[in-house]
Amino acid sequence: xxxxxxxxxxxxxxxxxxxxxxxxxxxxxxxxxxxxxxxxxxxxxxxxxxxxxxxxxxxxxxxxxxxxxxxxxxxxxxxxxxxxxxxxxxxxxx
Length: 94
Known about the structure:
Blueprint: H1 3-28, H2 34-60, H3 77-93
């Protein structure tokens, strides 16, 4: 390495350390994080909904009829993931 390259490398390293310290300090401060809050709210609501559904299923003694056959499952992973993403984005934007 030439002197200029070594000097530039040292400057970049010092800048990285400074930014790492700033990020660590920001994480130590308990700043509001809308993404994290939305995620936790959504998970809490989802757990409550699942508990209600389980209680309803237990009170009925199970399903009386099997679900109808469809080409695409309305409770499929793709659709449920899209709905969850939409709800989470809505919570984040509030």
